[in-house]
Design goal:
Elements (H helix, E strand, L loop, with lengths): L2 H13 L7 H4 L2 H35 L3 H24 L4 H4 L6 H28 L1 H28 L4 H12 L1 H16 L6 H17 L9 H23 L1
Length: 250
């Protein structure tokens, strides 16, 4: 398979995660909550590991060791972090923000629009990763997929809570997810135009991963119930991190 085929195939597969929102219809709330916390903890570890063990080292390796180039790499990382901070504050795509206004239908559309933008950027990042190298593409796609699972389940719940019929919420959630595919194709076409300069998306993606993990996910798994549960969640987080390390080493 060529690079474009991998990009399209991977982004299409990840877009299908949007249908996992239907789990809300079949699982008891207590079981779903426990499952989501496990996924969130594992996702947080994989995103941190993907950023620090794969994307940042790969970006530095590609641009070289000159101080100015390394500085540019970390500036792009900060840009990725800041842009996702701004996106979250302005559009408020995170599902917890929606629960404060559960009956406002326009907010449900904002969730869809912001998810579409976020997924498009993820598609760009996946494309750049596969263009840089196949292993980096796989790691990036895996980290994004793990993050998408709890997010899409949460988004589906928000859309239903915000007034959508369950069937329409599922369809609309997938429509916002297919921008991932368009982002992947756009990233591939962009690389043909700017060439190796597309490497700047690596640190940008790392900033994105670090923001999502540290600001959105890790606070979610904080536990006030008991030390035992806190340690369990940390172990799940560590498992995600170690998975990224294992992929790097082997």
């Amino acid at each position: 398979m060529n690079v474009l085929a991998w990009i399209i195939g991977t982004t299409f597969a990840i877009s299908l995660i949007a249908f996992l929102g239907a789990l809300i219809l079949f699982l008891k709330k207590e079981l779903l909550d426990k499952l989501l916390l496990i996924l969130v903890a594992f996702s947080a570890g994989s995103l941190i590991g993907g950023a620090f063990l794969h994307l940042i080292p790969e970006a530095i390796l590609k641009v070289g060791v000159e101080e100015a180039l390394i500085l540019n790499t970390f500036l792009y990382l900060l840009l990725g972090f800041c842009i996702f901070f701004i996106l979250e504050q302005l559009i408020r795509w995170h599902h917890h923000h929606a629960t404060a206004h559960p009956n406002i239908m326009p907010f449900s559309y904002l969730i869809l629009i912001s998810d579409g933008v976020h997924n498009f950027i993820d598609g760009l990042v996946i494309a750049a990763s596969f263009i840089i190298s196949f292993p980096v593409g796989v790691v990036t796609a895996l980290a994004i997929a793990l993050h998408e699972i709890p997010q899409e389940i949460g988004d589906f719940g928000v859309l239903v809570y915000g007034g959508f019929r369950k069937s329409k919420a599922l369809v609309m959630n997938y429509i916002s997810a297919i921008t991932l595919i368009f982002g992947g194709i756009s990233g591939y076409l962009l690389s043909a135009w700017i060439g190796e300069s597309i490497v700047f998306l690596m640190p940008f993606a790392a900033g994105n991963f670090i923001y999502i993990s540290s600001v959105d996910l890790i606070p979610e798994i904080g536990c006030k119930e008991s030390v035992k549960i806190s340690l369990l969640r940390f172990c799940i987080f560590l498992t995600g991190l170690l998975l990224m390390l294992a992929i790097k080493l082997f």
